[in-house]
Design brief:
By secondary structure, the protein is of the alpha+beta class. The protein has helices spanning 16-29, 33-42; strands at residues 2-6, 9-13, 49-51. It is built from two helices and three strands. Residues 54-68 have a biased composition (Polar residues).
């Protein structure tokens, strides 16, 4: 998953479950998306582009099954 934070907002690219998990994680730290954008802009050490993968659900399997 990729997250791009810029002056006008946030762009998230990834699978739906990854984006949903990242939004839940961000909700704990920031009340509004505007707060998130300001936090990134005010801290020069913060990355503007991040690549992170959220954790899978406990029932998910990483095993690749063949298409039959």
């Amino acid at each position: 998953m990729k997250i791009y934070v810029h002056n006008q907002g946030v762009i998230m690219a990834g699978k739906a479950w990854e984006i949903k998990a990242k939004l839940k994680q961000a909700q704990k730290s920031y009340h509004l998306v505007e707060d998130w954008v300001h936090a990134v802009q005010n801290h020069p050490s913060a990355k503007r582009i991040a690549s992170a993968t959220a954790e899978k659900n406990s029932g998910s399997s990483s095993y690749l099954r063949p298409i039959v």
